[in-house]
Amino acid sequence: MPSALQDALRAPAFIRRLFSQFPLVTHPVDPPPMCVEDFQPSATRQHSINHTLYSFTDSTDSSIASFNPTCLKWQTYLKIRNIPFKTQPSNNHASPSGSLPFLTISSQSDRTSQIIPSPKLAKWIEEHAVGSVNTVDTDDGDYRAFSSLVEGAVRDAWLYALYIDPENLSSLTIPKYTAQISLWPISQILGSQMRQAAIDAIRKSSTSTLPTATDIYERAIEAFSALSILLSGDTWFFGASEAGMFDAEVFAYTHLLLNLEIGGSGREVVEGLRGFGNLVEHEERIRRRWF
């Protein structure tokens, strides 16, 4: 082929630099997955099974909390249910369901593996974890109402503080989610996409018009007030004798809000949360015991 045509068909320098960040690697063919029954714990098999939680994280050490609330909820619940695992930094594109986290289980003895996507994690944990003394009914109306409060008002405040507030978007969110992408344009494009996704999510849960930061944070603080009353002087939510799924769900937000260096408008919701001493103590209790 003439050199001029070769040059014309050659990818631009920018594209070549982009793909140089992702070298082609050929992986061995995965063995067929095991069925669920093959993973029942037993003295002869348990030692040879490895669990890996793929999530938004900076470390392969499961004692290092994920910086994403959804991933942190499942990371915490796996710990509460005494399931040993390691973490693996990943992204949504690597997930079979298109979102993180997901759990992989590999058996060294017969070289088989299984993938548990996030929608199936709760069922898998219940089937394979050691029995829990937390018997809170997750189908109960009160449970669903308070869970909706966390995934509504509290989540909206998190999205606004981390993805819409310009200070936190540039100093926290973009660096965390694009740590493996060194090219400036790509990281900024992804940052803009994440910001727009957060705006769309908040609009869906409120009105077609994006509420102000103050309105969003006030609703979150009202939600924290309700959660504080629910917890009261108990150790765990709903008066349980041991931590459960709802404790992990609340911790996923309170831990990140209290421990990330959130600036800008986000300080408003952080300071509001700090005003509820029992929620702060609940976060400390889980962090010290499992992280």
TrEMBL record:
Q: Where is the signal peptide?
A: none
Its BP terms in the Gene Ontology are: mitochondrion organization
Metaxin glutathione S-transferase domain boundaries: 220-286
Q: Which domain of life is it from?
A: Eukaryota
A Pfam family hit: GST_C_6
Q: Which residues form the Thioredoxin-like fold domain?
A: 69-168
Q: What is a single cellular component term in the Gene Ontology annotation?
A: SAM complex
Q: Which PANTHER family match?
A: METAXIN RELATED, OUTER MEMBRANE PROTEIN (SAM35), PUTATIVE (AFU_ORTHOLOGUE AFUA_1G13180)-RELATED
- For this entry, the protein name equals Thioredoxin-like fold domain-containing protein
